[in-house]
């Protein structure tokens, strides 16, 4: 077991996980971090579970090889949904924390009606990991899950808010939040809209203003970046391995495209990344 | 040199090239085809030139290994833009046809004013291949190029037309077609909007209705799928290697996700693909 002064390893398929890193730095300002984005093979969200598991295990192993880390945060919902147990098996002894369980926990705390909506990539939603994690905590939950793949592109292109972003968000979320008359095949079910919305993709917090404008003020929005940062904090505190002073320093690793990683990633991280700081590695 | 009865090989980073395959089948109804989509590593459009060249060469070699083809069509603008000469070098003797030159040729035929707009992925636009290919044919052309990465996601999600698609298309194309007052830094240049728009990504023909609604009826829209099909027809005719009767049969190969390839690809091809017909290969 590494000392509390070792950095926290964070990996993602690309830049989305930088919203998790941002939340981790806010939550844990004394920690140091090493972030790996598998930009040569992104996105994971439209690929098969088998391929995602293979890529995620390789990325986690590379991260553990590049730096002596005290834990690994899988800052990608898709990789967490399908690859967490495989990663834990390969990195025995190293704590590995995903984003699904903290998000499910927060959703169950937030909901009053028990009707929870989950949006994510195709792979995350179809795999059913959020659904299982929520039902394990609350057996009577009603879960409406929807792939919102287009939100990834909106966030990457910086089309985060304003009327165009809102029109896309409204269109995509209509099956979850539109009046029942607008939905096909909904004849018999008593209509209720979810009171809680889980942003089950690390890109989606970038669109939170547009999403809030569409769903209204009554819906609780669960951001898995913030909830994961809380979970990491709790885990490190419990094992008495919080750093005493690391001042939030980050090393950036990527598998392709340092320039794009820095340019688009700066928006996701909320602070500038210099392309010269991004070291390319092969997986 | 293979006989005229051998199939035509077509490859793309994923499913976008199916719009080119569709145009090829329309143009050449007697030919047989083998299509490879590198779905495990898509998209190419946001990756570096070095990575795209490596992936494209591997994909073209795998295609030539899987089937005895009489030519290879690189049905991906990004791979054509950066990888064509590398692919030709590795597949010496096999005719290799990309989508850039036919598109540039068609654009130069269509324009009257000489002001041509090119939209494509980040990598295609930044690489400047269309710009070079147009200027080689028309030295005085004025070219406005713009990355429209978001259109890829719109097309894949099936959000092809209607008010939401049009709002995104209008937003993205505003730097090319908006009135000059809406543009920063345009004070001195005499204002003119392009009279020709090149769809420099094989996904974009899926959005042609929305694009037409935004740019109006006066702009010529050059679809590189159709122009590439003409070029392949001309090349095969010139070498007397047109097939006599193959009835448009297609074999599908992909590197990941047969189910998604079939589901989303059917829309791009304009005719149904059965997931059981899609054979997975490793690159």
Short structural description:
The structure is a homodimer of 283-residue chains. Chain A is α/β, with parallel strands linked by helices.
Q: What does this 3D model show about the protein?
A:
- 2 copies of one chain form a homodimer.
- Helix content of chain A is 45%, strand content 16%.
- Chain A has 283 residues and is an alpha/beta fold.
- The first copy, chain A, is globular and about 55 Å long.
- The first copy, chain A, starts with 7 loop residues before the first strand and ends with a strand.
SSE layout:
The structure is a homodimer of 283-residue chains.
Chain A: E1 8-12, H1 18-27, E2 33-37, H2 49-66, E3 71-74, H3 77-90, E4 96-97, H4 100-110, E5 115-120, H5 122-127, H6 129-137, E6 142-147, H7 149-156, H8 163-177, E7 196-200, H9 208-215, E8 220-223, H10 224-238, E9 250-254, H11 258-269, E10 278-280
Parallel strand pairs in A: 1-2, 1-3, 2-9, 3-4, 5-6, 5-7, 7-8, 9-10
Helix pairs in contact in A: 1-10, 2-3, 4-6, 4-10, 8-9
* Helical segment count of chain A: 11
* SSE ordering of chain A: EHEHEHEHEHHEHHEHEHEHE
Helix content of chain A: 40-55%
Largest interchain contact: A-B, 24 and 25 residues
N/C terminus separation of chain A = 25 Å
Gross morphology of chain A is globular
List keywords for this structure.
4-stranded parallel beta sheet; homodimer; alpha/beta; 6-stranded parallel beta sheet; 283 residues
